[in-house]
Design goal:
Elements: E1 6-11, E2 14-19, E3 77-86, E4 89-90, E5 115-116, E6 119-126, E7 134-137, H1 145-148, H2 157-162, E8 168-172, H3 205-211, H4 231-238, H5 250-268, E9 272-277, H6 279-286, E10 292-298, H7 309-317, E11 321-325, H8 337-358, E12 363-367, H9 386-399
Parallel strand pairs: 7-8, 7-9, 9-10, 10-11, 11-12
Antiparallel strand pairs: 1-2, 1-3, 3-6, 4-5, 6-8
């Protein structure tokens, strides 16, 4: 697998990059040169002090900056980053012979093929990489953006875990976001905002806001909510929603994520921690297990049935699992059907864990209010206490030796 790679320093949210290979390619593994901790790329700004050598009229160095120009200890250092696609297929050529003289102007597209139904991955490897990469898979209506930031512009989980030494591999699943290439428009007129059968756009802001347990009706939030407050944050949240281009296909997505896991193993030499959310959780149970070290499922839409093929595969692979649920499940409005839906999902996860553990597996279900962590919706990784929950997960990973 040939890849291009970048060395970068992320300084106070601003990233300066130095291309090491230009238009060349990256080695097949991630064992190549990385930037040493404390070293800056050629174009990275050097630290300054208020003493000798500072230009007249220049602003004093920011608080916490070293007089020697060393990078502050809280700065996130990225050794390598890049993008690639995994899995997918190539269509058969359109009937006829390709004519290079007319190329795109030939509306029959005779002889043309298309590369479709792959996953797309953006990755970052920190300078203090701990050897346990994390693959992040979004849920319905989302993309990798949800792991990278919050509606009010704070650090997302990918940054928080990068600072803990976990490389981030952020996926857009097939037929979503930057992996949108497919051969047929979605026909799902129930979930997707665009559907071939209706030819009409179908709004859903309020419906999803309620279902995700942020509040009863947008823009109100439930009492004690950790969801970012204000019109700007809500606007940013709604604008993260990303429709499918083609029908959701769980088996196709699982195969593509299996290819992602293979590529991550090839690049890093390690199995990956798999973090899934919502609909991505359903995909996660089907992904081949050979290159997975642990699963962290954030409010998955469901869990495997004991004794099922999914269940046995996970059990035989001895994969530790933890499943997280937020607030407003036991204490949500009883007249909203989503309350009962999420209660059923949570209780089903508890039953799964009991069976999995009884059969010799290792599964923990975390209902955050029981941990004294309250006010979280379906999007706990984007909320004001996302760092607290990240620390809780990090402690679990440490207990499994994945740190």
């Amino acid at each position: 697998m040939k890849r291009r790679h970048i060395t970068a320093v992320l300084l106070a949210g601003m990233m300066t990059v130095s291309l090491l290979a230009g238009c060349g390619s990256q080695p097949d593994t991630a064992q190549g040169d990385t930037q040493e901790s404390g070293q800056q790329s050629e174009s990275a700004p050097q630290g300054t002090s208020a003493g000798a050598g500072q230009e007249e009229g220049a602003e004093p160095a920011e608080e916490g900056a070293s007089d020697s120009g060393a990078i502050p200890s809280d700065v996130l250092m990225i050794a390598r980053q890049g993008m690639f696609s995994s899995g997918g297929t190539v269509t058969e050529p359109v009937e006829g012979e390709y004519d290079p003289t007319t190329n795109w102007m030939d509306i029959t597209r005779a002889g043309n093929t298309a590369h479709v139904d792959h996953a797309n991955v953006f990755y970052q490897i920190p300078a203090d990489d701990n050897g346990n990469p994390i693959v992040y898979l979004h849920g319905y209506g989302q993309s990798r953006m949800g792991w990278m930031t919050t509606p009010d512009g704070r650090e997302g989980w990918s940054d928080l875990f990068l600072k803990k030494g976990y490389a981030a591999f952020l996926v857009d699943q097939p037929r979503r976001g930057e992996a949108g290439a497919t051969t047929s428009m979605t026909m799902d007129g129930f979930l997707d905002t665009w559907a071939e059968d209706s030819k009409e756009y179908k709004p859903g802001d309020q419906a999803w806001y309620t279902h995700f347990r942020i509040g009863r009706v947008a823009p109100e939030r439930y009492e004690g909510s950790q969801f970012p407050e204000g019109d700007v944050a809500q606007d940013q949240f709604f604008r993260q929603m990303t429709p499918n281009t083609g029908n959701f296909d769980q088996a196709l997505d699982a195969a593509a994520l299996g290819a992602v896991m293979e590529d991550v193993h090839e690049m890093t030499g390690s199995k990956a921690i798999f973090v899934t959310h919502s609909q991505g959780g359903a995909v996660g149970w089907d992904v081949p297990v050979d290159n997975i070290s642990a699963i962290i499922a954030i409010e998955p839409g469901g869990t495997p049935q004991p004794g099922s093929e999914q269940y046995q595969k996970l059990l035989e692979a001895d994969i530790p699992i933890t499943i997280y649920f937020g607030d407003y499940i036991d204490n949500g409005p009883e007249d909203i059907m989503s309350t009962g839906f999420w209660r059923g999902v949570r209780d089903g996860a508890v039953q799964f864990a009991e069976s999995y553990n009884a059969d010799g597996g290792d599964c923990t279900v975390v209902y955050l209010p029981d941990e004294g962590i309250t006010g979280n919706s379906h999007f706990m990784f984007q909320e004001m206490n996302n760092d607290v929950i990240a620390d809780h997960i990090a402690a679990w990973l440490e207990s499994k030796g994945l740190n």
